[in-house]
Amino acid sequence: MTTDDPFHWRAGVLYAEDVSCEQLAQRFGTPLYVYSRAALESAYRAFDEAFAELPHRVCFAVKANSNLAVLQTLARAGSGFDIVSGGELARVLAAGGDPAGIVFSGVGKAREEMAAALDAGIGCFNIESVAELDLLDRTARDKGMSAPVALRVNPDVDPKTHPYIATGLAQSKFGIAIADAPALYAEAMQRPGLQVVGLACHIGSQLLDLDPFEDALDRLLELAGQLQAQGVPLAHLDIGGGLGVRYGDELPPSPAAYAARLKPKLAATGLAVHLEPGRAIAANAGLLLTRVHYLKASSARNFAIVDAAMNDLLRPALYDAWQEIVAVHPHNGEDEQLLYDIVGPVCESGDFLGKQRPLALRADDLLAVRGAGAYGFVMASNYNTRPRPAEVLVDGGNEHLARARETLEDLMRGEQLLPEAGNG
């Protein structure tokens, strides 16, 4: 951990900014997501300052963390937002986000979602298919409006990441084949319900190498030149997101290094630049606190059974993702360190947060899963009828309950029992 890490040690106890994680667990219970306001703002500024020499807009990818307090923090810092649903649109607007700074991505936009985004006055729709282009044109014309659009092209670049989060390959469901783009732009310019404003691509998530970004940009710039030669009025290039973060021993490029690699080519275009980081802003601004219920030894493994599970943090079960797990108050050599599988109560063999972790543990110990600020709560479910965790935003020495823990009543709200037999 670095000295500027918002999650740091004081007198042998893990703190979130100026609040003890033990204090947070005692007050709000566990499992508990904890976010740092300072870390969110710092990560956003790193991108904003890295591209300061160019006209640009940093649009936080809401899918990474959609908590209203998190979105409000970023909106106040000046962030735009990348959304993929009508629900995310509603969240950004409720959090005070500027509609003009919203870009609507995603392959399955419904007519009602398009209409809501048009009414809100969002900055751009990133279009991902011919059928979507047609529906948006009809939706906008029905409202007497013109929708600002960019086509998200698929540059067929290998992002060198997990296949589940690679989005720029030819076999991906995302985007339009780059070879098809000129004809589709020509068609879009003839549609009265559409206004062409940009060109977009996004090749994947958790990228640790800058070469795929540059390869994708080269293909995007070549296409942009063709489009401008045929009279397409581009105002911006959307280079997507995907910059990776450090979960363990990874060495991801910094936002400054990322920008330095791409800026010379971007500056030559004279176009504004849009980018859509999510994980790189939120991941290391959050952690998940969980308490050890039981320690269980078998002939093959030692298990620490904790109160968080795959329904609370899905990444390890879904991607076999590795996230650091530390004791909030380590025993400092008092107990023997063993290799533990950190597992939850859910009835699935895939229910684990980490495997073979060297820890000295006792029942009731408090653990912290690092790097949980992105793709944590947003992917949580109620599997096994488990209420989702609370979320807390820490600001210096202050703690704000950003989302109350769900209750069993919350889980059953909206359900109805069958009528008595014979009563219809």
Explain what you see.
By secondary structure, the chain is α/β, with parallel strands linked by helices. The protein folds into two domains: 7-35 and 283-412, Lyase, Ornithine Decarboxylase, Chain A, domain 1 (Beta Barrel); 37-279, Alanine racemase (TIM Barrel). Helices cover 28% and strands 25% of the residues. The protein has helices at residues 21-28, 37-50, 68-77, 86-94, 111-120, 130-142, 181-188, 211-229, 255-267, 279-282, 315-319, 408-412; strands spanning 7-10, 13-16, 19-20, 32-36, 56-61, 80-83, 102-104, 124-127, 147-154, 176-177, 194-200, 236-238, 272-275, 286-297, 302-306, 325-327, 338-343, 352-359, 366-369, 390-395, 398-403. Strands 4, 14, 15, 16, 17, 18, 19, 20 and 21 form a nine-stranded mixed β-sheet that branches. β11, α8 (211-229) and β12 (236-238) form a beta-alpha-beta unit. α2 packs across α3, α2 packs parallel to α9 and α8 (211-229) runs parallel beside α9 (255-267). The radius of gyration is 23 Å and the shape is globular. The chain starts with 6 loop residues before the first strand and ends in a 12-residue tail after the last helix.
